[in-house]
Amino acid sequence: MKKSMSLFHVLSILLALSLLLSACAQTPTTEQPQVEEPTAAAIPDVIPDVIKIGVNETMTGWGAAYGDMTWKGIQLAHDTKPTVLGKPVELVLVDNKSEKSEAALAAQRLVEVDKVVGVVGVNSSSMSMAQNEVLEKAKIPSMATAATNPLVTQGKLYAFRAAFIDPFQGQAAAKFAVEELGAKTAVLLVDIALDYPVGLANYFRSNFIAYTGDEKSILSYQSFQTGDRDFTAQLTQIKSLNPDIVFAPNEYAELAAILQQAKQLGITATFLAGDSADVPELVQIAGENAEGFMYTAQFHPDAFTHPEAAAFVEAFRAKYNIDPETFSVTGFDGYMLLLDAIERAGSVDPEKIREALLQTKFTGARGVTVFDENHNGILAVPVIEIKDGKKVFRYLVSPGD
Amino acid sequence: MFRLPTRSTMLSWGLAAVLLLLAYIGESALDDYVIRILNMWGIYVILVTSFDLVYGITGQFSLAHAGLAAIGAYTVSLLTLPPDAKLMSFLLQAPHPLISNAQWPLLPALLLGGVLAALVGFMIGAPALRLHGDYLLIVTFGFSEIIRLFLINIPSITNGAMGLKGVPYLSGLRWTVAAVILAVFLTNRLITSSYGRALKCVREDEIAAEAVGVNLYRHKTLAFVFSSFFVGIAGGLFAEILGTVDPNTFRPALTYAVITMAILGGLKSLTGGVIAAGIYTVMSELLRTVEAPRMIFSYNFPGLPGLRQLAFAVMLLVLILFAQRGLMGSNEFSWDWLLSRFKRPGTKKEGGEA
Amino acid sequence: MDFELFMQFLINGIALGSLYALIAIGYTIIYGVVQLINFAHGEFFMVAAFITMWGVFRYQIPWYFSFAIAVVVVVGLGLLVDRGVYRPLREQKTSSFIGAISVSFLLQNLFVVLFTSRAKPFPHPEILDQVLNYGTVALPVVNIFIVAVSIILFTLLFILVLYTDVGRAMRAISKDIEVAQLMGINHNRIIAFAFILSTTFAAVGAFMYCSKFPYVDPFTGVIPGLKAFIGAVMGGIGSIPGAMVGGFILGMGEIMIVAFFPDLTAFRDIIAYIILILFLLFRPGGIFNVRMREEKV
Lengths: 401, 354, 297
Fold this sequence. Notes:
- By secondary structure, chain A is an alpha/beta fold.
- Chain A has two domains: 51-164 and 306-380, Rossmann fold (3-Layer(aba) Sandwich); 167-297, 3-Layer(aba) Sandwich (Rossmann fold).
- Chain A has helices at 2-26, 28-36, 64-80, 100-112, 125-138, 166-180, 195-212, 232-241, 252-265, 280-286, 307-320, 326-345, 350-358; strands at residues 51-57, 83-84, 87-95, 118-120, 142-144, 159-161, 186-191, 218-224, 245-247, 270-273, 294-296, 362-364, 367-371, 377-378, 381-387, 390-397.
- In chain A, the strands form three sheets. Chain A has a seven-stranded mixed beta sheet, sandwiched between helices. A six-stranded mixed beta sheet of chain A has the order 2-3-1-4-5-6, sandwiched between helices.
- The longest helix of chain A has 25 residues, at 2-26.
- Chain C has a single domain, classed as ABC transporter involved in vitamin B12 uptake, BtuC (Orthogonal Bundle).
- Chain C contains eleven helices and four strands.
- In chain C, 56% of the residues are buried.
- Chains A and B meet through helix 1, helix 2, strand 3, helix 4 and helix 5 of A and helix 1, helix 2, helix 4, helix 7 and helix 9 of B.
């Protein structure tokens, strides 16, 4: 008797709730516009007393080194240009722990609590994607820093980035390998658990095949997963294939371990990587093993000769006593590009900032920056070589090459 | 046969209706930040509740939450993403024909996510629940990681490590609240029904339970499958509010966060789980200000990134050492208790969902 | 595959296998006496690596001195955790699991706050960077060092367990704790001793692991800890030869999959987990079919 009663309760609750759920299912199309209205309430043409710029960065978690360097660049930019529209700029830094859900929450917080007019960051593509889903809905312009995955800005109205993207970086690396180094064969060594290595390796592969004109020029695709530190097995395979180039666009610490183990195994191929290698710790960890290692980066002090670049390098050295690299330069330029747009918009209205961003023609640390139709920076790619433990500028691939 | 519903049942119905109404109003009245926090709270409540369900019935921990949530999240994302968006974001391999043209409404996608998670839950639970103690932990943990690793390795369906983005926001607070109500009520029913009482005696003494004719294994598996279903739903809602998923979102850290909440609330109390999920969500936002760099007088305080996680780790350790009962122990919120409080002055508020 | 190439894979496999075996011992020693999976083992490992690194870079002391300090600190930490966390929770299975997890989190996040999560180079003697070449086969000195240290430590451990009073007491406790107590064994002292042993192995393992893969960050211990744990379970957790063999097979297997089935490289972690699960389901005693004392219900 009692048993059937409780079963009856369960069933009736289930029934009622599924009815409610399906009732909910029908409403969203009509409801959508009402929800969006209050969020776009930034009143145009009234300039607040303090202009807040959000910085959403990977200050902890696996991306901490990248986040820290980016933040250095942004702070320097803030020192250089602390006001806009005659009002002081305040930076609001939020940490996203290198996690997607945190990146989205942090972005939402910047929008609703701190009422920022724009966001600089994230340096990582997957975090940028999570952030941009939020910012797009809130109509807040965002300026990703070193995030190079094309998906970050794809189809987004308010998302921009102060960096070139991986299709071009992959092309630049392949062009350099084939035309400058005369490479005919290559092997890929990729961390398949992260989006950046997987994406960039893919673009390198297609471009390398195109430049060499040889379908079989990529000899092998070797993989590992984040956290692995023993690459001797993959490297032994690579050694037996004897390629000209090993393209290994992985995180800096893993790259250092790869370089060390490759030297130990006596691999003579040139190791090539992407801009995630542009971290001082790489040379510190790999030491002599990094000799001859090359990578594409967003910046090298010798690659850009215009006065703005020199001024940036000088200011950066003065403030931090180290050389700027990929992450600090994208942080610096990201802030500058956003402020330049606000200045030209003459307003903090997101629509006007967006319009201004589209018209951007700003000379930052990496020369004149303009955005392509997908809001990505059209920028040159310097190739850096490690010589005597120093980063030496080797080659420049300009857009349109 | 038919009996008028008791006062408690009617009050519960009322509360459910009020919560849904509040959620509906809240969606236009509250700002997105608050809505997001409430959404996260709701999702964590479902996760903690389903964790409590497995523990409440089997007395064992399952560490498969992250993997099962991934199944729900990927199912919902793949089925609700418009076909052209899929075509654009699948940079590694063309999407598999099975999913390339699918575009479902949210409700069936969410339910399928739950069902698939339940199915996988069955595949995990059926063999694993024959094991005891530590072994169940290891096996469920292993399965969770296997799911994540598979997501990396089948790019034609999941886009590999690149993940999926642009998942349309079809849900909302009312969806989360409805799912929370469903999960909490059903779990409560399961645990308190005569069936559930049989299961509870499994937790207290397995041998005695078998002696009186309770089919332990079947009951445990059922509980596990139910719990997996809700984890799948929670995963689907999680993908909805994130708008983007990738395999790294479903590392074991997600499971550990759920365990922290479950311990904080008290492992045997659903009410505790609801409150603890709220505390966890709100605290991790409040502690954000402690980490941020700021000017204190003229001293430039550089901020201490990572402090939030440290605080939670310390909290978990202190709880397990000195307050294993958590906030609520095995006490549950009940209307009778509330009404008896109500008759006297000094009413204490209950930590509801919205 | 020619002989030289195979030798190269074998050398790689032996080194990685020895490392995993060495770390796996730490899990199994603890499990043998207290039936506790010490999930914080990987963090003891990380702390040892960090302190060694910090001593050299911050205070410029020689690496061996710094490493000695690290061993002392980690052993102390192990005893503290045993006394402060595991002992109060000893009778409760699930709680001690949570206790272990929270210690692991605490240490990870403490080191993130104190040292940030940037990877830092790990100091090690120059000689370990040398490589001996035989034809096309390369034999890094660090591999010889790892294997030699492992063999010495394993031998010492066997002597200790088989021929000393402490070792006998450890074995007695792992067979039947109540009888052991009746025989006058102070089980808390023996458990503390097991923690000293286990953390020492963690510290030595950390030094060798980080000498071979020369950087350290707060999450250094996670993956080797997990891998060694899988190895320990495969060999039969609680058994010292089991952990050695299990860890060794896992390391060797990781290398040999890449050698013989390069297409399966991406799946090797999945394979490891599947083997782990199959063992637990069909042969929970592992390769050596270890039978631990029954938990009294």
